[in-house]
């Protein structure tokens, strides 16, 4: 097991060089400390992942191309975008229609237009989601941890009564649930660092209050009873035992959380009406609201998903155009409001928000433009029915992402895709290990962080090699 | 993280280089100032006061420039190491102290002023000393003192590293060479080995090491001082030429051994290289059972182990504790009050043995308990990845009946490796759609899993590249995987084909051959035949160790998947494994042997941190207290209060006739759910042989407000209220069922206060909850 802590001597080294040199020789600080800071300085304490589950088409959202309205009998190959483009607050940057609110906060973050999902043969949601969340391609010889679990393990909870890794919005009763479970886990790090699930944000309070029908008085009395029985029972003979200690300690923590004032944050009904209404576009919107409230109370890592369910949400195998009208409605207001609220309260400075999807979509191309893979979707070349009007195939080579706060540049655009089909990345390609490393870096987690499992060092990114995308950081 | 040092502006370089010149001024000026102050002090005069002040001013000014230039120097040149920051801060401290001294000299706080002056001189002296160490080496001064001529730091080496004249015998040369290679393997191979050759350098063979890298030879036999490798590993950590660039630094004793080895001419004995990794003996061994009063041979071995370590036997646990332990360990259930009563009142001298045998005879209860362990180990589950696309098959009915019938272990293994349709799920692995990493193809999964589960051997590293932590090579892993393959595998190193087909070979050729041209089915049969031979001591030691670990809370060897580690008693392990093969490969018999031993009946022991259990110097003093598994806990709730699972929760992958064989729906038979997951039931995507059992917050939340437990206790309270309207009876009965004892007076009082005279459902549910959370309920002690 390797622990990388900010060590006092490194700190002294950095601090002394910087401050004293600036004093004594009036040199610019940055020049002096070059080569002197072996550990990244954290620019963020909290991460919120906004997960667009099911494959969000870049040309229909944050990277729109030429718009071609629907006509019966049209050639699919002519269609790059099924929505008109709208201006954003950034000069020369347009978003697809329906995302104007997010377009309005792009001066507070970075737009990435060049994320390239891996090529894993078939383009499959569950495997690509696994890859995005763990940074490892499935299957692995050991159970790979979710990025939230790594962060929970390395940094622990920010506020001791708020679980370090909270997962909002995903149910595990839907199709491919087992495939989803495979990466919603702390894996070999142990379930201590696993996700705290809140499948329905409007029921968030239920996860942190006494069981239904038990008032707080009774809840408290029950705990007292437990403590009294422990003290009375002949457990003394068991001496100091990590099992017994961890049982007691974890129970105390649970009660502390359930009784803490912070647990009110889970209760969305206490949110002012007008604010609640902006967020209330459905489960995802309320998830954003819950994420905001938990961030204010000291959450460490939160994932909010539009929820993956085969052929639902962003997983548009038909009716792509009309379905996306709905999806945009779900995300546009809440995401923009989340950014604004956190900005206003000052939390955005230390909170990194990442909006991403496992891959993009295209009307014609499946997977990589130059590779033949199994078609996952029936899509005719000539559109005789509006249900074929939309991005229905899985596309890996140009995906859009948004990042805000926690040291991410403001009003910045990174990467570019081609304006004609295939609309693939033509500038600054970004891979998943770079995204992970950049997030870890912002959190002050060094790239060589690893956990030794079965005598093998298992790094946060494969072989510890993920490169930070410095351009994204202030 | 880059540690690039950018090319500096010439002026900074120049100023930096002035530092060593300037520093001499404050040193001498401040010392003279102190000397004059001392003269004044002894003469009680003030003759030198003005001169002292001037010296102080000049010295302080000098200190200021020294600090300034020093900081520039530190950042333009490649200085590093632990001494730099100390030097730096001492210099800065001196500057501050000197300034304060001047200030106080005006105010004439005479005592403080003088103390400060002394401190200033101390500071400047220490700063100077550390500065000297930076330029001349840390032993520049101290090295001349007679007292510091010590022997080099004690090292694990058996060589007197100081001697370079004494001849080493061939055996010593071997040992030295092995130590050197061990150091290189742990610190260097990952970048200078089979997979990567950074700087065109390999250190994993004699020829490669002597050939050096892109910058020429890395060592000069006979002269460590002129050997590049020694220079590089001795550099301070943040120096850009320092090695290793990744991972931890070499310890001083490791450097010392390498230095010594080079000074001896870097000897590398001819002939076959001895391994640097320990490999356990393969052959079975029958150690002589020690003499003694104990009937059970296990106890005779433990007794001689205790004698060797000076440990004492303690009195065995009482009947009640024994019964609870053996019920949970063998069939996973709490004893019913009636069962416990019968046992406690039984006067037969051999009643413990009788009880254990009775429990083992309860075939279905036994199977339903051990199913959990084997499902984890064999990666078998009722739901999970892979099923959705028929990329996986379960072995549940086969496994259930194998356990219920106590299938001899040799046959058990044989049928998993050379399977029929019902047992093929284990070696078939999980097939994901799309392309996967070569080291995870199903044939390689089979090779890895067979090696791990049955042989306690890690083949995972070697299935990608030659292992850094054992002698297993990539080609051996592929050769082994080939046995499971329908078409010959091409070797991939780190997921890239190397243009070579794998041969087909056993991991341990001494166990037998595999015919290359045979069909897959034939090859698998040969493999199974070979692996289950009694000569395969490794297979049976691995099994015996696993069972011991399950019952005793810690294996003779840990981790249980690393059978090349040393056991705390080789004799005991070898004897049990041998005895096992001589007596029908009977797992139940082995269990009976263990649970009737005095060693098993010793009082439970515990440790403060779970990591301590993994220590290689662990000493056995009795069974280590265990936490109930998720399944045992759920079953204990079901049995004590009210069944937690309904019939409808039973997995559809179970044998047809299961319903007639269960007292209630046991948790080992249901699909995984949030409750069981929180309590530690794994996703069975990969083999898991040891669960993490420590409690944690997420688990406690599930227990505190999780729906599943809450619902169960509500239902339980409803039923209990009807059965036991009288509060004292209710409390006594609950204690008997949950903890196997009656409550003491204080417990009665507390419980009575809660349930009141007329127990209502809420109060009963709360009492149930509190009882279920007790360590006494949740631990096997």
TrEMBL record, chain A:
<dbReference type="InterPro" id="IPR010869">
    <property type="entry name" value="DUF1501"/>
</dbReference>
<dbReference type="InterPro" id="IPR017850">
    <property type="entry name" value="Alkaline_phosphatase_core_sf"/>
</dbReference>
<protein>
    <submittedName>
        <fullName>Secreted protein</fullName>
    </submittedName>
</protein>
<dbReference type="InterPro" id="IPR006311">
    <property type="entry name" value="TAT_signal"/>
</dbReference>
<dbReference type="Pfam" id="PF07394">
    <property type="entry name" value="DUF1501"/>
</dbReference>
<dbReference type="InterPro" id="IPR019546">
    <property type="entry name" value="TAT_signal_bac_arc"/>
</dbReference>
TrEMBL record, chain B:
<dbReference type="InterPro" id="IPR019251">
    <property type="entry name" value="DUF2231_TM"/>
</dbReference>
<keyword id="KW-0812">Transmembrane</keyword>
<keyword id="KW-1133">Transmembrane helix</keyword>
<feature type="transmembrane region" description="Helical">
    <location>
        <begin position="112"/>
        <end position="132"/>
    </location>
</feature>
<feature type="domain" description="DUF2231">
    <location>
        <begin position="18"/>
        <end position="131"/>
    </location>
</feature>
<dbReference type="InterPro" id="IPR011444">
    <property type="entry name" value="DUF1549"/>
</dbReference>
<feature type="domain" description="Cytochrome C Planctomycete-type">
    <location>
        <begin position="188"/>
        <end position="244"/>
    </location>
</feature>
<feature type="transmembrane region" description="Helical">
    <location>
        <begin position="51"/>
        <end position="74"/>
    </location>
</feature>
<feature type="transmembrane region" description="Helical">
    <location>
        <begin position="20"/>
        <end position="39"/>
    </location>
</feature>
<dbReference type="InterPro" id="IPR011429">
    <property type="entry name" value="Cyt_c_Planctomycete-type"/>
</dbReference>
<dbReference type="InterPro" id="IPR022655">
    <property type="entry name" value="DUF1553"/>
</dbReference>
<keyword id="KW-0472">Membrane</keyword>
<dbReference type="Pfam" id="PF09990">
    <property type="entry name" value="DUF2231"/>
</dbReference>
<protein>
    <submittedName>
        <fullName>Putative membrane protein</fullName>
    </submittedName>
</protein>
<dbReference type="Pfam" id="PF07587">
    <property type="entry name" value="PSD1"/>
</dbReference>
<feature type="transmembrane region" description="Helical">
    <location>
        <begin position="86"/>
        <end position="105"/>
    </location>
</feature>
<feature type="domain" description="DUF1553">
    <location>
        <begin position="526"/>
        <end position="753"/>
    </location>
</feature>
<dbReference type="Pfam" id="PF07583">
    <property type="entry name" value="PSCyt2"/>
</dbReference>
<feature type="domain" description="DUF1549">
    <location>
        <begin position="297"/>
        <end position="487"/>
    </location>
</feature>
<dbReference type="Pfam" id="PF07635">
    <property type="entry name" value="PSCyt1"/>
</dbReference>
